[in-house]
Amino acid sequence: MEPKCRCDVPVSPADKSPAAARVGQTEGEAAVWRRHKVSSLPAAECSDRATAGFLHKSDTMTVVQLIPVVLLVLLGPVLISCSTIRPMDCSEIHQQNKTQSSGVYVIYRGDGIPLQVYCDMDSLGGGWTVFQRRMDGSLNFYRPWDQYRNGFGNTFGEYWLGLDNVYVMTKTRKYELLVDMEDFDGKTVYARFTSFSIGDECDGYKLKVSGFINGGAGDSLSLHNGQKFSTFDKDQDASGNNMAVLHVGAFWYYNSLYANPNGVYRWGPDSSHYYIGVEWYTWKGTTYSLKGISMKIRPVK
């Protein structure tokens, strides 16, 4: 018997699984991030080392020499406080410094839990937090419910941030969604939605999406609006069949599908398979598997 679902129960950071806090991060990658990315944040520019330098000066200072010391002592708490800025998403990192490049950063979701994510600082103004990314078929996306809930993969490559993380983020503020796609000929298109959020686990992480803007890909997602998320071991779709098993993936399936971004990674067109692959029906139909697709969110301005 499946345990009763409990939602909105406060969870301390120590109780979160590593997958939810740092999707696929190894110690080496953590060291790389700390060494390269932290130093690139505006917050890292804040330091009280100057204060320490003055305080080690001789006690025999003139009044003129003491003025900067007094100012630093008074302003010290303000200067140091900027080092504790904790961005809730990639848009806040982008706002702090618009010269930041796309890459892996640490954000803090609405309840303060740290998450390692890939930030897209280039597309349509930048500041997008990526929660799903396919690019080379290096990662198996045919996974059970608990892994889709908590997250899996490597933020330096292919990964899924986790339904619970996306839920917590989208319940605290209004977000828009961008779905970027690329085929094996190098052509890129996108689909944009002005409103995106998902429900909690008790509600099956139900999809709420609207406001389609066409970037050449067409709208293959609105059909899935209002659907619960399904995996092969947790069938919540509106079909009499298990759509996750039938289409070898995991998604907000309806009784049919137009989008299957978490499907089996295949290389381009293959007429021997229908609705099996990384697909976006309104762009490439049911027999073409995309080279790349990423789903990302940004607060509505």
From TrEMBL:
Pfam families: Fibrinogen_C (PF00147). PROSITE patterns: FIBRINOGEN_C_2 (PS51406). The keyword ATP-binding does not apply. The chain crosses the membrane at residues 63-80. GO terms for biological process: elastic fiber assembly. InterPro entries: Fibrinogen-like_C, Fibrinogen_a/b/g_C_1, Fibrinogen_a/b/g_C_dom, Fibrinogen_C-term_domain. GO terms for cellular component: extracellular space. Keywords: Disulfide bond, Membrane, Transmembrane, Transmembrane helix. Gene3D superfamilies: Gamma Fibrinogen, chain A, domain 1. It comes from the Eukaryota. SMART domains: FBG. Residues 81-301 form the Fibrinogen C-terminal domain. This is Fibrinogen C-terminal domain-containing protein.
